[in-house]
Amino acid sequence: MILSMTGFGKAVQVFNNKKITAEVKSLNSKQLDFGVRLSQNHREIEMELRNLVSKALMRGKIDLFVYCEPIDGATSGTINIPMLKQYKLQIEEMAHELNLPQPDDWYATLLRMPDALKTDAKATEADDEELKAVREVVAQATRQLIEFRSQEGKRLESFFEEKIAAIQALLDEVPRYEEPRTLKIKGRILDALSKIKEMDYDKNRFEQELIYYIEKLDITEEKIRLQNHLNYFLETMRSDEPGQGKKLGFISQEIGREVNTMGSKANQADLQNLVVRMKDHLEQIKEQVLNVL
Fold first, then answer.
1. Neighbours of 39 (CB within 10 A)
2. I need a labelling partner for 86 at 20 to 30 A (CA). Which of 4, 38, 74, 255 fits?
3. Residues forming beta bridges with residue 262, ordered by sequence position
4. Are 155 and 31 in contact (CB under 8 A)?
5. Distance CA 51, CA 42 (A)
6. pTM for the model
């Protein structure tokens, strides 16, 4: 079963009048690209959280956000009245010196000033229990993201099965065009020879040369290899091995190589039409494989 690299997870936990929220999101990326945003009082466990999330998610462009907010009117800050007194005096002095009007709304003016709210360092400092709660909420959000990836992976798996089946159906059509193609090539060469007047040729040698020419256009090996690659793609996709995305990408490249060779050897409109349709399905596979973990 495959997993998508795209996903989102969110978890919330209440601890000591604080609501701790963790959000994890991931997008497709060739490597692990990790970004973290934590409040200052949780920075000490940043590396631990990075390791926890990266081990679980393996690959992708991952962003982790953890933030806290007070609940039920709880707050760790108080209005810094002495500081606001100083600001008011300075504003009044400035208005007098510059002959400016004083503010109409002192509340709005003063509360926007720096350090208008002072915080209690001890109240904001995270203890071991709060850090434990942060770890738990991050783990919950990560598990939710993995579930999201699993659901998206099922959709991708159905998509790949449909596209591989479409290529298989086109491959199964190839044999019915091969014998007419050979006869058409032979007839075209004989027709060209008949237009050359007063020319005689060794029919045995002609047959040998014709066989050599047709062997160069033979696509039997390409069909066998393409069939093997299609089977291997499905086998890999359905395996329990984690992180099949890169492997599926390599297999799709090999499928493309055999399809291209068949196209260059086709030398017949109907076969080339089949090849074009195979390429169309394959391009859709390659586009979606980039989203597989």
1. 14
2. 74
3. none
4. no
5. 15
6. 0.70
Are 272 and 263 in contact by the 8 Å Cβ rule? The answer is: yes
Domain boundaries, the chain: 7-74+125-148, 77-119, 151-289
DSSP state of 201: -
Q: How high is the pLDDT of residue 219?
A: 81
CATH code of the domain made up of 7-74+125-148:
3.30.230.40
pLDDT digits (tens, 9 = 90+) for 6-31: 999 999 998 877 888 999 999 988 88
Cβ-Cβ contacts under 8 Å for 199 (sequence gap 6 or more): 193
* CA–CA dist 257, 222 (Å, integer): 9
Q: Which strand (E) or helix (H) includes residue 22?
A: strand 18-27
Nearest to 272 by CA among 280, 262, 281: 262
Domain 151-289 has CATH 1.20.120: yes
Backbone angles phi, psi at 20, to 5 degrees: -95, 120
User: Span 123-144, mean pLDDT?
Assistant: 85
Q: Are 293 and 243 in contact (CB under 8 A)?
A: yes
